[in-house]
Amino acid sequence: MNFIFSFFILSGIIVAAANGRIDVITNAAMTAAGNAVQRAITLIGIVSLWLGIARVAEESGLIDILSRLIAPLFRWLFPSIPKGHPALGCILMNLSANMLGFGNAATPFGLKAMQELQRLNDKPDTATEAMCTFLAINTSSVTIVPATLIALRASAGSKNPSEIVGSVLFATTCSTLAAIVGDIVIRSFCRRRRKF
Amino acid sequence: MTAETLGQGFSWFIPGLIFVVFLYGHMRGVRIFEVFVEGAQEGFMMAVKLIPYLIGIYVAIGIFRESGAIDILVALLSPILKVIKAPTDALLLFIVRSLSGPAALSMTMEIFDQHGPDSFIGRLASTMLGSSDTTFYIIAVYFSSVGIRKTRYAIPLGILADFASFAASVYIVRKIFL
After folding, report:
1. Is residue B102 part of a domain?
2. Which of A19, A88, A156, A192 is the one with CA 20 to 30 A from B111?
């Protein structure tokens, strides 16, 4: 990120200088900074509203219900975690919160899940298979309610802010499937290599 | 099904979700208003923390575009962009997405400002932002929180999922909205 940031600014200034339009830079920088703060004000409203709703959902136990629904699937994805181990519960809570678009509520569960998984690890400095599976599913982002996104689109003046729900669902399903399939392939490949 | 009717169905999405959350919360005896304010407070702090990111990204992209440097990059990347049929902004967003969440969010807002949320690139950016996550950041934070240094295949697997999300986003947005 540091590289990209300085690349944008430095190359911009160099190109402007080479084209003899150096005065453009000052103007662009000042206007952009002002616009950013204007956008941020809208964002404060959206994010506050959404996290308020998210907290109500969390407190009422809605996330627990979802995690009970998807539990059977996850026993199959994490064969190395013993049945009833707290790690599975944390993973479920983390992914359920992510699914509902409550990224903030998800992180504490995610870190707790890692601690629980670490307890099952016999090589404390090396990642386990379950950890890799968990992170692959987590980073491929299983979102079914991209709420912040819809609110953002609305504030930017979209005629139909929710129209992207379908395309997001399609893309996120593809990426999660790719992560799961990739994980299974790599895992079986690793096992075979250890045998021979 | 056209994009229009598809979109109309989804306009029930957010109202419906809020209804369910509040109704269920009420039934479970949650002190809804107090809990809501608590969450909103956290959201407020989060949004305020985001302001410096927004300023940084807006300024960097503003300079990059107004100077004409972006035209040079577009010319250089045009062979790749022709193959994947995606605009330059989408490729940049794809790179930034896996590195920094706030930066990707800022970049998407910048795209909305420039091209409008209902443009092709606006919809593509929305889909990309919604269907992927800050891969490198999450892997770094989660592993370092428990002291793991050898991450094995976690990073390649995360990158694989990112590419799948990018390809799927370009495909589906072209298919539905073009």
Report:
1. yes
2. A19
Inform me whether the C-beta atom of residue A51 falls under 8 Å from chain B C-beta atoms: yes
Q: Quick one: pLDDT band at residue B4, thresholds 50, 70, 90? A: low
Beta-carbon separation of B13 and A157 below 8 A: no
Residue type, A41: I
Residue A11, CA distances (Å) to A4, A114, B71 in order: 10, 41, 12
Could you give the CA distance from residue A146 to residue A101 in angstroms, rounded to a whole number?
6
Min mean pLDDT across A102-116, B29-43, B128-142 is at: A102-116
Over residues A14-28, the mean pLDDT reads 90
What does the pLDDT read at residue B24? 92
Q: How far is B83 from chain A (nearest CA, A)?
A: 19
CB pairs under 8 A between A and B: 360
Residue of A nearest to B18 (CA): A53
What is the domain range of residue B149? 11-177
Residue from the list A39, A160, A175 with its beta carbon closest to the beta carbon of B132: A175
Work out the pLDDT band at A69, boundaries 50, 70, 90: confident
Please, what sign has the CA dihedral across residues A124, A128, A134, A138?
Answer: positive
Taking the domains of chain A in order of start, what are their residue ranges? 1-60, 61-196
Q: Which amino acid is at B47?
A: A
Q: Is A181 on the interface with B (CB under 8 A)?
A: no
B72/B4: higher pLDDT: B72
Beta strands in chain B (DSSP E): none
Residue A104 has pLDDT above 70, yes or no: no
Please count the structural domains in chain B.
Answer: 1
B60 is a domain residue? yes
User: Could you tell me if residue B3 is inside a domain?
Assistant: no
- Contact (CB<8Å) B40/A146: no
Disruptive mutation site among B42, B44, B111, B126 for chain A (greatest number of A CBs within 10 Å)? B126
Rounded to an integer, the average pLDDT of A60-84 is: 81
Amino acid present at A168: V
